Records
---
Amino acid sequence: MAEAHELKFKDTAARAAAAAACSAPPPAEAEPGDLAGDRMVLNVGPSHPATHGVLRLVIELDGERITRVRPEIGYLHRGDEKIAENCTYTQFIPYTDRLDYLAPMANNVAYALAVEKLLGLERQLPPRCQYIRVICAELARLSSHLLGIGCYAMDCGAMTVFLHTFTEREKIYNLCESLTGARFTTTYTRIGGLARDLPPGWVEQCRQFLDEVVVNIEETETFLTRNRIFMDRTQGVGVIPREVAIDYGLTGPNLRASGVAHDLRKAHPYLVYDQLQFEVPVGTRGDCYDRYRVRMEEMRQSVRIVRQCLDQLPDGPVNAPAAKVLLPPKARVLTKMEELIHQFMNVTQGVNAPPGEVYFAHENPKGELGFYLDSRGGGTPYRLKIRSPSFVNLSILSWLLPGHLLGDIVAVLGSFDFVMGECDR
Amino acid sequence: MTARELALQLGAQFPGLVSAPAEFRGEITLRVAEAERMPEVCAAAKAELGFDYLVDMTSVDNYGQDPRFTVVYHLYSYRHHCWLRLKTAVSEEQSELPTVTGVWRTADWHEREIYDMMGLRFRGHPDLRRILMWEGYPYFPLRKDFPLAGRPSDVPEVAFTGAAPLEGGPFVTTAGGADAAAREPRARTPESEPPRD
């Protein structure tokens, strides 16, 4: 039986207010300045077309003006770093496909290079392997930017561009399929080499694709670059000054759009990038429009790089002469004793990495993808940290978005071209 | 200037606190003796040596050793175009160090991730909440004593976890097992594992 309480308040409205004050915790979102209580909290995501995955933004609005933004991430967290500690270096390669799943080949290359740096193998990579890896990384960049720009245009209301760029992207996936056997989950690199050499006729197919994609890029440019609606949606929106971009650790096209000419392919060339001719496009204002323009130009430069690689592509092996790292050919495993031992050791124990720690950074389509490897010797990393560009790029949102209109959210988010797969890892 | 010269300069500025540079695969690592003075060292590295970009921040769990945790900072200088790694040790009893968000704002999310995954608290951080796991999750999953299969947890009306995958897994090798059979990928559960010493 309920206890009888003496009523402190004579009128019901006062009593209800007092009860609400006791039971409900103070609203966590309330800003000290919001005395009139006319700000509204709006949830965008985690499942929303403009968030390109599972990003959630808790937005506080004053009318249509954004006053506060709290990004919530982690909806796609799979514990990749924990998994890495529990499998050999080679076993982790398939997991890298699933980081930035719009550019799996670039992740494969980045991870292989990081482990090779730890093993001290970079100098032993045969030239053909290095050229093919560059081709893979640049095709991944093309594919990622085609998707990024297509989706961005669609976010801003231009449906045609999306269908247009996806046609070309499909051709890249066909190339990936004939090269690796898979369209998305490529798992193409191995520590010290590649899963297989280029199939017959692949170079010609790739050349034909490049001829087609440059036409497509020009057409996309005519759709958007001088499009009045697109310019109004993106120019002067989401402006990131140079100093703030560096302070928040932005990388990739988002950094270069703010006027920092930093590209790891130029600043710290790996593979054969120092032998290739290409430019690094840089923006001036750091707004959404500049980020779009930088990506457009990067695609042209990627085409240029792939063409040079195809022209210069040397013959020879694709795997480093490192028997204790790579699996030997199957025919020899079945007939030779030494190869059988190497096969057995590689499969059961993995590569024997020296103790030490390395950080390797790769210029991925989204920015600087870094792998920090802490090895205590043996075949598994003691700690593997993935420095993912999307994670760092998104951290600027709570600084950038306040002051913008609600409708600018899609324009700003799209211009960042992030992927939650690598953000949440 | 090269990373080594910059590292020596930083070491000269903080004698006794910053170690001599160690090099492996062309990368320079400095150890900072006191985690408490990390913001001071970082501020000097940024202001005087031009390390204006904090590339990454992470932590390592040296389970079974004392001090248990290592916090690793990767710095990059746009002026000198070189990397520098700073490391500092944090004991399990302490589990706390001052934040460097005042030096680089990008440290905000990195520190939240370290707190979320390893349970190190950053004093002075503006908003130290979990970032990848959900609010109310009781464990720190990247610690070495947290099993790969996970631990069941239950936050009413928010989220829950069970040991995953539910049947037959996870198929993993174990690091540093005694022999090849112990490292082989196979289903491992806490019950089937021999007790670790």
Note: The longest helix of chain B spans residues 38-49.
---
Amino acid sequence: MSGPAVIRNGGKLPLSQIPVLTVSDFRRDILDSVSKGARISALFGSPTGENIRLIAVLAWRDTGSISVLSAPVQKSYPALTPDCPQAHLFEREIFEQWHVMPEGHPWLKPVRFPDSEKTSDMGVTNFFQIEGEEIHEVAVGPVHAGIIEPGHFRFQCHGETVHHLEISLGYQHRGVERSLVNGPNSKSLHFIETLAGDTTVGHATAFSRIVESLAGIRAPARAQVIRGIALELERMANHIGDLGALAGDIGYLPTMSYCGRIRGDLLNLTAMLCGNRFGRRLVVPGGVGYDIDSENADKIAARLKSAFRDAESAIGLLWETPSVLARFENTGALSRETAVKIGLVGVAARACGLQRDVRSDFPYGIFLLSHIPAATWESGDVFARAFVRWQELQRSYKFILEQLAALPDGAVRAGENPPIASGHLAVALVEGWRGEICHVAITNNEGRFLTCKVVDPSFHNWFGLALALRGQQISDFPLCNKSFNLSYCGHDL
Amino acid sequence: MLKVSKVRLQQGYRTMKWPDGPAPEMPPHFTGRPVISGDCCNGCGDCAKVCPTGAIAVADGKISLDTGLCIFCGKCEKACSKDAIKFGNDFRLASAKREDLVVQPGNDMTPNAYSEAIHKLFGRSLKLRQVSAGGCNACEADTNVLGTLAWDLGRFGIQFVASPRHADGILVTGPVSKNMELALKKTCEAVPAPKIVIAVGACAVSGGIYRGQEETHKGVAEIIPVDLFIPGCPPHPATILDGLLRLLRK
């Protein structure tokens, strides 16, 4: 048996170099790798004529490398999930997309209900139920009370205590992955920019790096820096918004009011880069759509300083107010062991003490030269998820100011994009504000996408929220939910 | 307590003066309402070829641009060798009629958004329930931002409420994914009549980039009648607020 093919973040390899294993070797290799510290970044099916080829993309933090392995399957294969819980949603997705049965999967329920139109059973599934005299069930959604996306939450409660939460999504399904097949074309980047609109820069960066890798081009240094600035502005805007919303969920109005406004200031800074508050049109294959002139760079830096001063005092109130800490601490705690087991990523993983950050583990672009240390906290609770955000805000702030002051000279676009390589696989990881974004593309013999796999961090983390609710009071659900703040459309695609 | 007061003083009064004072400054590269110059356009159709949503139509050597389908990516502006299309700074895009969103050469009028009937009913108080039906969370975020103290939507008597039973209408984002169709209909039915429906963003107005996807509809109007269309991808918060205010003529 040959070893798996190994690439770096943003690398590509010919399909012929990806080992094709038997299913049992494939399973054993993944289980071995995970026990040695690898994490499943993506696990999906890709069509090969009559059959489906399972592809696993494993991320190795210690070496900063990504290994790729594959196995052909037909109608079924023995599921990984019983031995490797972090595979659970990937295997449900494989079953839903390709009708390949992961035998022995303990929880083989719909992921996105892609065929609900034909079967008219959207959201209908055999929800897990606890039985008992005083057990009651609470159903919430798909339409929620705030201005947020739709999803269904089913709680099994005894009194106020939640014993089990089941999260059933798919309401936002728009067929993004399917529509990327046969691309890239004039719509591809727009699907990517809107697959999770609050992470436009993160996803557009991952996708652009995939196209660049397959086309054999590099975004110029100046573009890499602008992408880094935009990514950290996106992180800052969302983290500030989340800290404000967390304050709102516990009725602490000063921080809520200030942060809501300051978040808008940060979005306006992204708009100063490209005209759009969410970074649309900014990151494009080959570089960035807009340059920053020095006058604009100075303006952005000055406004960022002023917004950060406001954020510092608004957020500082949280850590000094006993009633806030009393609600944040020990609420919705996840253990480090659980986080490892279920493959948590991003803020939620770092709040369990795990050093997991693409920027430092699998650095690319500007992060190869300018390091942002991963921020962690050990307690795994709402406090930890809030405090990690605050630490990250400070680091992103410093990073952006440094980069604005030292923009390298040169162009912001590589020339025209050449055609992309046929018969290749490329992987790009980006640390979006929620966590690891993984894009994988496989091209056919004509140099078009045969398969595009998009893994938003939310795909890994929704199950973390479900587990965090166990043993909590149901009234703490909004607070716990906001502390994860996961994407519905990023999951539903 | 002293610290809270100190921070309060530092944060200051931050609600914008607009619409009584100057409008918020739009950023450089902002793509607002497009203007087509009839004199420059030779009808070559280069703009239509690069449009990812098919928002540009060429007929009789003239082009028209449907801002309801447009995602304001600006590709047509770059593709035009005659400088016939210019995305301006005007953020006032909302329209009561779908057809008024189509920009013709030489016409840079702001479309009408006012409805006398709606003004009479809800001119002094409008409570809205928001439904995201396949929205990407950008339209949702820039609607949500109107509730912050910078925009202070409440000062106009407009408020987002938690229950459709408390609402006078719904504000919908997203192309209406088929998986949200039933929930959208039920939410709309739960709003007591008379009620209004507002579609925010290219997806909700026309399907936008998702128009033609088998998993989605082509916007809200396919499911329920719409009283106000607010284009953009996503619309700037000023575009959304301007639409709401012009609908009620505040």
Note: The two ends of chain B are 39 Å apart (CA to CA).
